[in-house]
Every structure is written in C-alpha cells, then in structure tokens.
C-alpha cells in the first residue's frame, strides 16, 4: 500500500502541494509571526510554496498582509526569511 503524502494549501496561490514542498509560517497567540523551517513550532500554521517568483509577486501585492491581517512592516522579515530559505534549498547538496 502506498504511503499517503500529506498535502497543504499554499496561502499565496490557493494550490495544494505536498507538505515538504512548502514553507510554514506561524502566528502565535501573542501575535508574533515567524517562519518555521522545522514545521513543529506552536501556533497557527500557514503554508507558502517554495517558488521565488510567486513569493515576490505576493510581496508586491501584499498577499500575506491581507491573509494574516498584519501591517506590512511586521512581514518584511518574514518575506526575507522565506526567500532566504528558498535560496538555501537551491544550493546543490554534496
């Protein structure tokens, strides 16, 4: 029997993707927002596709600000961290 692959919906594109192909963003009860590369931190999780072009488009259209109901200044570092993680994964593993 084939192992079931967990799917999650990207909040930028509304498309379903395997969980391992996404980056998790967490909003805590205290209102903190941060990127969770481990996928295990406490808080409400939202997922973003690991696609540089889609993340840049979302940044320009302020998609995360609308979806998470936050001001743009609080999400600058979140966008930067997502982009940094995407670049890190593009480096071939030796």
UniProtKB/TrEMBL annotation:
Protein name as annotated: RNase P modulator RnpM
Entry superkingdom: Bacteria
Gene: rnpM
Domain (YlxR) ranges: 8-82
CDD domains: YlxR
Pfam families, sorted: YlxR (PF04296)
């Amino acid at each position: 029997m084939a192992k079931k692959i967990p799917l999650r919906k990207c909040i930028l594109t509304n498309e379903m993707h395997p969980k391992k192909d996404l980056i998790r963003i967490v909003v805590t009860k205290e209102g903190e927002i941060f990127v969770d590369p481990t996928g295990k931190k406490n808080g409400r999780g939202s997922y973003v596709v690991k696609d540089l072009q889609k993340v840049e488009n979302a940044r320009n259209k302020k998609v995360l600000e609308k979806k998470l109901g936050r001001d743009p200044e609080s999400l600058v570092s979140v966008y930067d961290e997502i982009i940094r993680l995407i670049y890190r994964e593009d480096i071939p593993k030796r």
